[in-house]
TrEMBL record:
Entry GO terms, CC: plasma membrane
Lineage: Bacteria, Pseudomonadati, Pseudomonadota, Gammaproteobacteria, Oceanospirillales
InterPro entries attached to this UniProt entry: AAA+_ATPase, ABC_AA/LPS_Transport, ABC_transporter-like_ATP-bd, ABC_transporter-like_CS, BCA_ABC_TP_C, P-loop_NTPase
Ranges for domain ABC transporter: 5-253
A GO MF term: ATP binding
Pfam family, one: BCA_ABC_TP_C
Name used for this protein in its record: ABC transporter ATP-binding protein
Alphabetically ordered keywords of this record: ATP-binding, Nucleotide-binding, Transport
Length: 256
């Protein structure tokens, strides 16, 4: 395997607060890599930097060997790197299925000129998007609520829909930020199962920030522990859980 995301010696401070300190991590292509650490360790900040939502002060980020340091999120999206979408407020009035259909960028239907001159092509692409959305909604187990407004879905169902939206794109690497938060155990099982299948059957690479240690244990290998903005240790979940430094800094602090 080779690193699809390569974070090299990244530093980031907010005013005088050094949040990310000479941080280097590699995410291997085809892996589900976990990123854990105590509150305030810098996990979300690092995600924001990788996803192009926050500029870094120094260091470098490579995507599949290409320098993507400080590239904007929309450019990274087109290169196949994205964070899970939040269900945006304006989409709460669309059905679950329509939310999936809204995702693909540059749909020809959005261009009036194209719709005028090439209506058949527009209809063909819309039909293709709808077919894909129907496949995805079945995959994520939300077919029974496909015509329900997204705003009426449960928190867990919204998370499943969020994951489904990534499947409507050509994503290769998906960053999941605490996707388990507030999800009940049954839906969490569905969520984990879907991530596993997206990884195994479709080759998505995941980088996962998570406080839910059951989810990390079931899904992630390797697991990277971040503390004070640097990598403390990296290894399998067993190695992490038995590491005295981690027990002290992370589990000892009761942060899980
Ligand atoms: N925009 C900002 N301006 C100033 N300080 C910030 C900003 N964003 C984050 N911080 C600080 O950076 C530190 C790391 O925050 P971050 O959210 O990255 O940690 P985290 O590991 O994701 O924490 P948690 O597990 O609690 O979500 C915290 O001390 C936080 O207060």
């Amino acid at each position: 395997m080779s690193a699809i995301i390569d974070v090299r010696h990244v530093n980031k401070a907010f005013g005088g607060l050094h949040v990310i300190n000479d941080c280097s991590i590699q995410v291997e292509e085809g892996s589900v890599t976990g990123l854990i650490g105590p509150n305030g360790a810098g996990k979300s900040t690092l995600f924001n930097i990788i996803a192009g939502a926050l500029p870094l002060d120094s260091g470098q980020i490579l995507l599949d060997g290409e320098d993507i340091t400080n590239r904007p999120a929309n450019e990274l999206f087109h290169k196949g790197l994205l964070r899970t979408f939040q269900i945006a407020h304006e989409f709460s009035q669309l059905t679950a299925l329509e939310n999936l259909m809204m995702v693909p960028p540059d749909q020809p239907g959005e261009s009036l000129a194209k719709a005028w001159f090439a209506p058949k092509a527009v209809r063909a692409q819309e039909a293709e998007v709808k077919r894909r959305a129907q496949e995805v909604i079945e995959f994520i187990g939300l077919n029974h609520v496909r015509n329900e407004l997204a705003g009426n879905l449960s928190g867990g169902q919204k998370k499943l829909l969020e994951l489904g939206r990534t499947m409507m794109t050509d994503a290769r690497v998906v960053l999941l930020d605490e996707i388990a938060a507030g999800v009940n155990r049954t839906l969490l099982g569905d969520l984990i199962g879907n991530i596993e299948r997206m990884n195994r059957e479709f080759g998505y690479t995941f980088l996962v920030i998570e406080h839910d240690m059951d989810m990390i244990a079931r899904l992630c290998d390797p697991v990277i522990v971040l503390a004070q903005g640097s990598v403390m240790v990296e290894g399998s979940i067993e190695e992490i859980q038995n590491n005295p430094e981690v027990i002290e800094a992370y589990f000892g602090a009761g942060a899980a």
